[in-house]
Design brief:
538 residues, 3 domains, six-stranded antiparallel sheet, 22 strands, alpha+beta, Transferase(Phosphotransferase), domain 1, Immunoglobulin-like, 21% strand
Length: 538
């Protein structure tokens, strides 16, 4: 990060930087104000080597062009761009958002109730629909890029963040970048949410890659976890995305109605011709589970109640491969992967080419990666394929199920994180409050790579959310300082709904759903840690 002190500096003689909101390995986001007192968010490239790289700066400004080209309340509004004449740092002036992203919401409450999950993803789908109509494919849809900003009325509206690696079909956005929007044999996006075609680094992808990623977000919102819990390396993750069907959602969240599970797996069809054809179609499919409204109020952003968790809904009719779950268990993963590798030896060649150039970058408290193609790093490839017409995909057929065995235990590492916060602050690990020891530390224990989410409150106000990863030597970071960490907007803790409050997943089953089979839900298999490596471009 640059040694230049930015707080208090005036960019381009117009925007005074007030405070740091967040930072990564390449840049940072500041709150700023102009001479009229209007407040903005400013995104900056802060390293000289990045700011002077034509390819990176072009991609940086492409985000502004992409966002400005889309007219939707669900896309972050961009007001200005430029290069500060004094520091030579490129910047983007955007609307200032107050709220929480879906990643932190899931970390805070766990699996969302059906109504809340459906409304959040439906709003995101409406925003993506506008982007797709403008010829723009996002390519990095993930919970961290689905931000719920609070309005004065108290409800929230979804804003889609980070169009920095978007592909544009419309040439009017840039007359010079047409062939440089795709890197042949490279991957751009976050692997956990990548579509198979994106993970293979295919030259032509269309809007349906965003549908896959949004389906992954819906899967995680409903279950509290991703389907790749038995995968612990980047290579195995990419291979799994390209060769394995996603674990049935109801294996992890048996309380989810079968009709909604079918919508999720419709988005996650590896064959793009069988996938949900468009964002508008997805929003329409989610409407029955959103109780006919996409309004997001605090009451619907709550986790699944215990009474709903013990319900076992009828199984959704899914394709044979997804329904059996055999390829999704830890014990059979190696055997299944070997068969899949032999069957897809030719088709997986682009996959391993895509893995050939992975550069690891430290951003904040996590580990991320970016890719480059060729020795000269120049972009290659073609413009985005035309957006598909919305046609009905084939419905999956029913098949019997098999319960996966529990995953094997991992060696654990134990360590401490020192919390520097006000004396009356309280700390939560995930959803549970934890006590600090006499030295103001939280004890964490887990396998290498295990992510933890620490939330620090003062009264009912959320002061800080910090993601911590377990390393061989202990937690990273090992110190969390409220005054120096990621700043979040203070918001009250949600109250448990009384009669007439948020409807649980069990209560939102549509009239056409089969009768409840009854019985208690088996505990979901424990998910192994997410791979430490994510793709981002900040």
């Amino acid at each position: 990060m640059s040694d230049v002190v930015m707080e208090g500096r005036v960019l381009a003689q117009k925007y005074e930087l007030v405070r740091l909101l967040g930072q990564g390995g390449m840049g940072a986001v500041y709150e700023a104000r102009n001479h009229l007192g209007k407040r903005f968010a400013v995104k900056l490239l802060l390293k000289a080597e990045f700011a002077q790289d034509p390819g990176l700066t072009a991609r940086f400004f492409r985000e502004a062009k992409a966002s400005a080209a889309i007219e939707s309340e669900h896309i972050v509004e961009v007001y200005d761009t430029g290069v500060d004449p004094e520091t030579q740092f490129p910047f983007i002036i955007m609307e200032l958002l107050k709220g929480e992203d879906l990643e932190h919401t899931i970390a805070r409450v766990g699996a969302l109730n059906t109504v809340g999950a459906a409304r959040v993803i439906a709003q995101a789908a409406n925003g993506l629909g506008k982007a797709h109509e403008s010829g723009i494919v996002h390519r990095d849809i993930k919970p961290a890029n689905i931000f719920m900003t609070m309005r004065e009325s108290g409800d929230s509206v979804v804003k889609i963040l980070d169009f920095g690696i978007a592909k544009q079909q419309i040439e009017a956005l840039s007359s010079n970048e047409g062939a440089g929007l795709t890197k042949t044999g490279s991957m751009l996006g976050t692997p956990l949410y990548m579509s198979p075609e994106q993970a293979q680094g295919l030259k032509t992808i269309d809007a349906r890659t965003d549908i896959w990623s949004l389906g992954m977000c819906l899967y995680e919102a409903l279950s509290g976890r991703t389907p790749w819990g038995d995968v612990d390396t980047l290579g195995a993750l990419i291979l799994s995305i390209c060769s394995r069907d996603v674990a049935p959602l109801q294996d992890l969240a048996p309380w989810v109605p079968p009709e909604l599970a079918q919508v999720v797996h419709w988005c996650l069809a590896r064959d793009v011709s069988q996938r949900c054809p468009g964002a508008r179609a997805l929003a329409d499919a989610l409407r029955p589970f959103a109780q006919g409204s996409f309004q997001i109020t605090p009451e619907v952003l709550l986790g699944v109640e215990e009474a709903a968790r013990v319900q076992v809904q009828p199984r959704a009719a899914l394709p044979q491969a997804s329904q059996t779950g055999v390829a999704l268990t830890s014990s059979s993963a190696g055997q299944t992967r070997a068969a899949e590798e032999a069957k897809q030896k030719k088709s997986s060649a682009p996959l391993f080419a895509a893995l050939g150039a992975v550069a690891v970058i430290a951003i904040g408290g996590g580990i991320f990666f970016a890719t480059r193609s060729g020795d000269d790093g120049k972009d290659k490839g073609s413009a985005v394929a035309a957006q598909p017409t919305e046609t009905a995909a084939t419905k999956p057929s029913s098949a019997p199920t098999a319960e996966p065995p529990p995953p094997p235990a991992d060696d654990k590492v134990t360590g401490f994180v020192t919390i520097k916060a006000p004396k009356d602050a309280k700390v939560k690990l995930g959803k549970d409050e934890v006590k600090l020891d006499s030295k103001g530390r939280v004890e964490l224990s887990g396998p290498v790579g295990q992510p933890f989410v620490l939330s620090i409150y003062q009264g009912t106000k959320l002061l800080l959310v910090q993601k911590v990863f377990m390393d061989e030597s202990g937690p990273i970071p090992s110190d969390v300082d409220v005054d120096k960490g990621e700043q979040v907007v203070a918001k009250p803790l949600p109250k448990k709904p009384g009669p007439g409050g948020a409807t649980t997943a069990a209560a939102t089953q549509t009239a056409a759903a089969p009768a409840n089979t009854g019985g208690a839900a088996p505990p979901p298999p424990k998910e192994k840690p997410k791979p430490k490596v994510e793709t981002t471009f900040e």
